[in-house]
């Protein structure tokens, strides 16, 4: 997996093109995502970590980038991401040891982006 910025840049244009071709499908997917991630018994950070573990297991770099960024915004810690990666490794074996570190790197990049975007005090 490239760094998270490259993955997002690579997917941006094709995603916009696809959205213009099947807007109802992607609107429905967005609605499903909002419903699944809405506050409930599980907090947003926990839900993002669940999604991240699935992304690692499915070896989806776009999902890893998306859910690490959302996990950062929801307040997930680096230790929390590492522990979630541990669950992915336990459930997925060897591929988890490859995709898990990629997820941790994506988390670090998302934190760095958040720090850069915060206004100086």
Number of continuous helical runs: 6
Order of SSEs: HHHHHH
Q: What is the CATH C level class, in words?
A: Mainly Alpha
Tell me which CATH architecture applies here. Answer: Up-down Bundle
Distance between the termini: 35 Å
Biggest pleated sheet: none
Estimate nothing, just give the exact number of structural domains.
1
Task: Estimate what percentage of residues fall within beta strands.
Answer: under 5%
Query: How confident is the prediction overall: mean pLDDT?
Result: 91
CATH superfamily: AhpD-like
User: What is the β-strand count?
Assistant: 0
Backbone structural class: mainly alpha
Uncertain regions spanning at least 5 consecutive residues:
none
CATH-derived topology: AhpD-like
Instruction: Write down the Rg.
Output: 15 Å
Query: Helix content range of the residues, please?
Result: over 70%
Instruction: Describe the global form.
Output: globular
Looking at how many chains there are and whether they match, the oligomeric state comes to single chain
Task: Record keyword descriptors for this entry.
121 residues, mainly alpha, AhpD-like, 6 helices
């Amino acid at each position: 997996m490239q760094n998270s910025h490259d993955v997002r840049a690579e997917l941006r244009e094709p995603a916009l093109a696809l959205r213009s071709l099947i807007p109802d499908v992607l609107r429905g997917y967005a609605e499903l995502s909002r419903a699944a991630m809405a506050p409930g018994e599980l907090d947003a950070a926990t839900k993002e970590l669940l999604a991240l573990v699935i992304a690692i297991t499915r070896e989806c770099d776009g999902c890893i980038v998306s859910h690490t960024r959302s996990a950062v915004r929801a307040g997930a810690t680096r230790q929390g991401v590492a522990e979630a990666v541990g669950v992915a490794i336990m459930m997925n074996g060897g591929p988890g040891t490859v995709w898990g570190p990629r997820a941790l790197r994506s988390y670090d990049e998302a934190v760095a982006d958040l720090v850069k975007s915060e206004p100086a005090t």
